[in-house]
Structures are given as structure tokens and as C-alpha cells.
Design goal:
CATH superfamily of the largest domain: ATP-grasp fold, B domain
CATH topology of the largest domain: D-amino Acid Aminotransferase, Chain A, domain 1
Distance between the termini: 29 Å
Number of domains: 2
Number of strands: 14
CATH architecture of the largest domain: 2-Layer Sandwich
Strand content: 15-25%
Radius of gyration: 23 Å
Order of helices and strands: HHHHEEEEEEEHEEHHEEEEEHH
């Protein structure tokens, strides 16, 4: 799709892309399953629903979930603990965060002193704790929690809470799982959530505080989608038929995922060889801006600690490969533009090709 990630989806470019995908379908369209990128513009879901059945939470519910005044008021009514939240900056005696309404990925979160009051910003008290996410599937009147994952950040100076990755299973007590599951059940009924969704908690001193609900398949999907029944099938059965699985997912091993962010901008090389454990691969020659995601790397191991170590090693490997190939291509272009003597230019090109091949 044309456009830049920072601008987000636009109907003028989204509709032709969706229509082209629909035209490629080998059978009649069952419906549209959407992911991230619509929380701050649910009107696009309304437009899409005019053309294809929406398999998941409807646009009006997404809007309610992402309107802080309505969402946190409902949490209060249900007795679900959450950090203090306000539409205006609060006392400087406490540490507060500024968040974008409908923001995703954590890059939009900054200390409150770095942001000014605006229509698309709200404020939340900063609380230190452990980030835990509950993946669940809902049918509009109930929900089944499928599993819990721990999450971490990949901070930048300008985006201290940028999402980094996740690993499952989360090391939390059975009592904490029951409390978080009860909160998911209550909020799913109150908002009539449908399909796969996630509830993001901050656990402080054994107390789960609910931060937000993402009512769509999210970033932790890859680390849970390894059971006998696919998560997409669970999503469709819940959203379309109201069917919920009888129990949570169960695994004997651990899995982790991590986002690989570009350290400098560049075009994706057309000849890069992606390992099998790389997902969300960019298209050849696709431009990746500095600090934007290149891809996702996955790792599976006997324990969460081992999976996290392996996924971090793979993140570093892909980042080095991507940046080295880009540098090699840049050197080749400089060599071709140079006005060196023929013999020297030939040696430079040969050297550049050798370096590039070695990095593969």
C-alpha cells in the first residue's frame, strides 16, 4: 500500500488494496479480519463493513474501548483496578504519562511533561510493574482466556515505551491468572467484544491493573498459534458462530517474538535470504525508515529464559544482516558513480561483492 506508516491507513488507498485481495480469493469471501491500525480511526472499519462482513468487534465498540473517558469509567463501574487516568495533565508531584487515544505499539507514550493537552491525548499515572498480556477470544457475551505472555520494551530516547517483544508462558501465579481472567470476562460482556483480543495489564505487588483492551488479533498471536486448532479458526468461530473453546491453550515449551527495528533507513535488498524463523518480511526494495519495524523474529525453546535469549540473538543477527547488506549495496552504487581508473573501479566492485556475499 502507498503511504508512510506514521500517517496510518487512508480509505483512498485501503479500499483498492482490500478489493484487490478480495478479487484474488479462490472462493466466496467469508468476511474481513482486521488487525492493528484502526484503533484511532474506527470509521475505516465502518466503511469496510459496507463492503464485506466484519469478522470481529464492530467499529462502534472499538471506538468505545478507545475512548478513555468511557473505557475507564466502565472499569470503575465493574470494580476492575486500573491506573488513575485523566484528560488533562495532573499534579507534578506524581509521575504521569501522556498517551495518544487509539495509539498502538507503545511509541506514542511519553512523559507528560513532554506533551501538551490535545484532543487526541490523555494522561495516566506512571506505575512501575511487570507488563503481562492476556490473549483471549470472546463471542459477545463471554470469553475464554487462551494464555498469558510477558512483554518488554525496545526504548528510544523519544519513545521510551516502544514495544519490543513478548514471551509465553508468563511466570505468574494461578491466583493472579484467575483475577485477570475474571476481569477479561467482565469487560468482554460489558463491551460485547467478539473474536480474538488482548488485555494488557501492569502487575504491581501482585495487583493486576488493566491498561487497555485491543479488540483484534495482536502482536502476541505468533507465540500462541502453535496448537492443534489455529487461532484464526477460533477467531472466526467465536465472531461468526458464537463458539468458544472449552479450555485455555496448553504447551509444553516456550516461545518468544521480537520486533527488529531499523537503526538507519534503507531499501530492503531484493537478494536477502530470510531464515524460516522470520515473519512479517518486507517486500524486496521496500523502503524502511529509521526506527521503523523491519520484521518479526521468533524463537521456540524449553523455557521462557532460553526462548528470550534465542530471540534476542536472532534479532541482532537479522539487524546486522539487514544493515550490512544495505551498506554493501550503497558502496556498490558509489563505486559505479565514481570516476576511478578502470582497474581500480573493477577491484572496488569485486571487493564490494565479496563483502556482500560474506554477510549472507
Amino acid at each position: 500500500m502507498p503511504g508512510r506508516i506514521k500517517r496510518g491507513f487512508r480509505w483512498q488507498s485501503l479500499y483498492p488494496a482490500l478489493h484487490a485481495l478480495a478479487d484474488l480469493a479462490p472462493s466466496p469471501i467469508l468476511g474481513l479480519v482486521y488487525g492493528a491500525g484502526f484503533e484511532d480511526r474506527p470509521e475505516l472499519l465502518t466503511e469496510a463493513a459496507r463492503h464485506w462482513p466484519l469478522l470481529g468487534t464492530d467499529a462502534a465498540t472499538v471506538h468505545r474501548l478507545k475512548t478513555p473517558e468511557r473505557f475507564f469509567a466502565e472499569l470503575g463501574r465493574l470494580g476492575i483496578a486500573h491506573p488513575p487516568t485523566a484528560s488533562m495533565p495532573q499534579s507534578r508531584e506524581m509521575s504521569w504519562l501522556a498517551k495518544k487515544r487509539g495509539g498502538a505499539g507503545g511509541s506514542h507514550i511519553v512523559p507528560s511533561h513532554s506533551a501538551s493537552p490535545a484532543a487526541n491525548v490523555y494522561f495516566q499515572q506512571r506505575i512501575d510493574g511487570t507488563a503481562v498480556s492476556a490473549l483471549f477470544v470472546a463471542n459477545g457475551s463471554g470469553a475464554r482466556v487462551l494464555g498469558f505472555s510477558e512483554q518488554w520494551t525496545a526504548p528510544l530516547a523519544s519513545s521510551p515505551w516502544r514495544y519490543g517483544g513478548a514471551a509465553s508462558p508468563a511466570a505468574i501465579s494461578a491466583a493472579l491468572k484467575r483475577r485477570m481472567s475474571a476481569a477479561v470476562q467482565a469487560i468482554s460482556r460489558a463491551f460485547a467484544i467478539k473474536g480474538l483480543a488482548s488485555a494488557d495489564f501492569l502487575v504491581r505487588d501482585g495487583e493486576p491493573l488493566l491498561l487497555e483492551i485491543n479488540a483484534r488479533p495482536g502482536a502476541t498471536l505468533d507465540i500462541f498459534d502453535r496448537g492443534a486448532t489455529s487461532l484464526l479458526r477460533l477467531h472466526i468461530e467465536a465472531a461468526k458462530d458464537g463458539k468458544l473453546p472449552p479450555r485455555a491453550l496448553s504447551f509444553r515449551d516456550a516461545m518468544a517474538s521480537s520486533i527488529v527495528y531499523a537503526e538507519r533507513g534503507g531499501a530492503t535488498p531484493s537478494d536477502i535470504e530470510w531464515p524460516a524463523w522470520v515473519a512479517d518480511r518486507p517486500k524486496p526494495l521496500e523502503w524502511i525508515d529509521k526506527h521503523r519495524p523491519i520484521c518479526t523474529v521468533l524463537a521456540r525453546a524449553a523455557s521462557v529464559a532460553q526462548a528470550k535469549r534465542l530471540v534476542e540473538a536472532r534479532r541482532r543477527k537479522i539487524l546486522a544482516l539487514f544493515q550490512c547488506v544495505i551498506r554493501g549495496h550503497a558502496r556498490e552504487r558509489q563505486d559505479r558513480k565514481g570516476k576511478s581508473a578502470p582497474g581500480l573501479a573493477e577491484r572496488q566492485r569485486s571487493s564490494g561483492t565479496a563483502r556482500q556475499g560474506a554477510h549472507r
